[in-house]
Each structure stands twice: as C-alpha cells, then as structure tokens.
C-alpha cells in the first residue's frame, strides 16, 4: 500500500500520514508548507517509509512509482489562514484538486477529497445531513474557502463520472488536537493558548453560536474507513457533540486550571450560527462513529499545548 497525502505536513495531514505508516503503508506527503510545518512530520522519517515532497499542488506535481491511495488534504483551513491566502485557497481547491485527481487517474488509485462542513455555510437545516445543499454567501469573506470546496466536490464527481476514478468525498466537521498551530486562530487553539498563558480568552460575539467538535484520532479513523471503502460520498465525518463557544471557552479555562477571564470580541462576518453533523451515513456505510469523550480530548490537547506551545514558533518566525 502506497499513499500520497497532499497537505501531509499540516494538522490533519500529519496525523493521517502517521496512521497510514502505523498500518504498514509507504507514504508520500506533498506540501508547500504555507500553513503546515515540516516539524509536524519530522519524526516520521525514522520509519524509512516516509517522504515529504515540498511542492505547491496548485502548480502540479509528480509522484514516481505506484500509488494506491490519494488523500487530498492540501488547503488553508483556518479562517485567518484562508483570509490571508484567498486566491491560493481558491486555486488549491480547484487546480490543486484537479492535479490530485489526475494523479489518482494516472495511477488507478482511490481518491479521497477533504471537503468540509463549510459547504453547508450558515445552515438553515439543523443538524446537517449530506442531502442538504447549504446556505453559502459566495461573495462574503468565507466564500473563497466554501466555494473552493464546493467546486472541489463537483470536480471530484465529474472525474468519477467522466474518467471512472474511484473517488470519495468526506465533509469534515471541526476537528482539534495536538499539532494545531498555537497561532492558527481557530477557537480551540486560541482558547487553550490563551488559558495556558493566563491571557483573556476571546469569545466572538455573545458566544452562543455552536460548533460540534471532534478529536483528531476519531477523525483519522473515519477518513481511513472512507479510504478503504469504495463509497463516493459525500459523507459527514465529525462528532455530533455540539457546544456553544462561550461554554467551550469556560470549559477550557477550567480544564487548564487557568484564571483567565473570558472576554468578548467582534463576531466575524458570515460566522455560522449553528453546526452539527448528522452522522447516520458514516455509521451505516463506514461503521464509524467517534469514540473519544470530548473532555478527554480537551485534556489531551491542553497537555500537548502545555508541552509544545512555547517550542512551536508562529509560521511567520520560520
Ligand atoms: P492545516 O492548515 O494544518 O493543513 C493544511 C496543509 O495543506 C498545510 O500543511 C499546508 O501547508 C498545505 N497546503 C495548503 N495549500 C497547499 C498547496 N497549494 N500545495 C501544497 N500544500 C498546501 O489545516 P488542517 O486543519 O489540517 O486541514 C486539512 C484539510 O482538512 C484541509 O483541506 C481542510 O479544508 C480540511 N478540513 C479541516 C477541518 C478541521 O477542523 N481541521 C475541517 C474541515 C475540513
Ligand atoms: N471563535 C471565538 N474566539 C476565537 C476564535 C474563534 O469565539 O478566538 C469563534 C468563531 O467566531 C466561530 C467559532 O469560534 O464562531 C469557531 O471558529 P473556528 O475558527 O474554530 O472554526 P470555524 O468558524 O471555521 O468553524
């Protein structure tokens, strides 16, 4: 088994590479390090079955030898990253997805696209099932990410229908865990970093907006189940554990044994109000459901940040 993971030096990509290597696979990560870090995968070289190719997948890339699986995970994913890299985000979702699909076609490999709950936008249906078409503002600030992923889904299906590529689409809901960048700007890394530093914990708006949060190990198990199946998807992968951001902030402060105050900051434009996956399809088709209790997952994440945050420089410092 030989797998290519685009975005393999990122948060989710590095965990996927690790899990594939643990299963005995040979892994090629392809990453331009625009939001990821070579340090995330440094420890994987010791297996002797891991290669990191530093390439921009939007510009095309080649992988020598046979390939059985292509996991297309390259894309800025945090709102602050895709707002900083709007055109790059659109290109990696379009050109990058096409190059990854071409690789799968050329090698007769299974292809899995990392799509997102953001394709549902600010949803008017709750919880979100895969047959909901979504409520997305194409010209709002988040449009660059949401529309790139929606285009990527359509292109993936077109390659399946036109070229017979064995494709699958997963819609990933908010996932967290070790190796998130402390400066990544997403809610959990911010809340954990701020709590550990004794700084104010920043909740946007009144904090009553919700997200459903999944631990990375559960997510990886779901992705690998999708990789092993031949189902086209889209299939939601996430933990239906829904929580408001103000409750989450207070929970992190408590678990980190911090005395940080919770403060309120401006709410981003088009910030979704609710989000929760209906995971019936993942249970039925992939026999997958999340296992790690959220309190344990938060404890594991806080412990990792405690040990690594001060030795993980911001991207701008590398
Ligand atoms: P991340 O920013 O940590 O990882 C993304 C990786 O892709 C980085 O290593 C980055 O350098 C790389 N990359 C970006 N553009 C590239 C390009 N043009 N060429 C090569 N490499 C490129 O983000 P993440 O949270 O690990 O997200 C990984 C994937 O999962 C993304 O596609 C994201 O949209 C999707 N996703 C993540 C979540 C989540 O909660 N983490 C939720 C939904 C979807
Ligand atoms: N958020 C927050 N404080 C922060 C960062 C984010 O309250 O310091 C909010 C954000 O406005 C959103 C939620 O937390 O309502 C989840 O944001 P995140 O960026 O983690 O994920 P996404 O919006 O992409 O689901």
TrEMBL record:
InterPro entries named among the record's database cross-references: Epimerase_deHydtase, NAD(P)-bd_dom_sf, UXS-like
Subcellular location: Golgi apparatus membrane; Golgi apparatus, Golgi stack membrane
CDD domains the record matches: UGD_SDR_e (cd05230)
Gene Ontology CC entries for this record: cytoplasm
Recorded superkingdom: Bacteria
Pfam family, one: Epimerase
Principal place of residence: Golgi
Enzyme Commission code(s) on record: 4.2.1.46
Reported cofactor(s): NAD(+)
Designated name of the protein: dTDP-glucose 4,6-dehydratase
Lineage: Bacteria, Bacillati, Actinomycetota, Actinomycetes, Micrococcales
């Amino acid at each position: 088994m030989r797998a290519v993971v685009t975005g393999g030096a990122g948060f989710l990509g590095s965990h996927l590479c690790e899990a594939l290597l643990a299963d005995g696979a040979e892994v090629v990560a392809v990453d331009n390090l625009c939001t990821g870090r070579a340090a995330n995968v440094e420890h994987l070289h010791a297996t002797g079955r891991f290669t990191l190719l530093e390439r921009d997948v939007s510009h095309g890339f080649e992988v020598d030898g046979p390939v059985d699986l292509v996991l297309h995970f390259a894309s800025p994913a945090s709102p602050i990253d895709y707002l900083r890299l709007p055109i790059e985000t659109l290109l990696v979702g379009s050109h990058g997805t096409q190059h990854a699909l071409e690789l799968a076609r050329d090698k007769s490999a299974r292809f899995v696209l990392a799509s997102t709950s953001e394709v549902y936008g600010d949803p008017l249906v709750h919880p979100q099932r895969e047959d909901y078409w979504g409520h997305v503002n194409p010209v709002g600030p988040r449009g660059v990410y949401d529309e790139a992923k929606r285009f990527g889904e359509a292109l993936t299906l077109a390659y399946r229908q036109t070229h017979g590529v064995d494709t699958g689409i997963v819609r990933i809901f908010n996932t967290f865990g070790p190796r998130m960048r402390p400066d990544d700007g997403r809610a959990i890394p911010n809340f954990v970093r701020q709590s550990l530093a004794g700084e104010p914990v920043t909740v946007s708006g009144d904090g009553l907006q919700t997200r459903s949060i999944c631990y990375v190990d559960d997510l990886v198990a779901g992705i690998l189940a999708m990789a092993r199946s031949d189902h086209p998807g889209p299939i939601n992968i996430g933990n239906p554990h829904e929580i408001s951001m103000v409750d989450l902030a207070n929970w992190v402060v408590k678990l980190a044994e911090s005395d940080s105050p919770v403060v309120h900051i401006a709410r981003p434009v088009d910030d979704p109000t609710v989000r929760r996956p209906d995971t019936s399809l993942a249970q039925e088709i992939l026999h997958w459901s999340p296992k790690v209790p959220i309190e344990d997952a938060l404890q594991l994440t806080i412990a990792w940040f405690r040990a690594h945050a001060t030795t993980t420089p911001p991207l701008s410092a590398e």
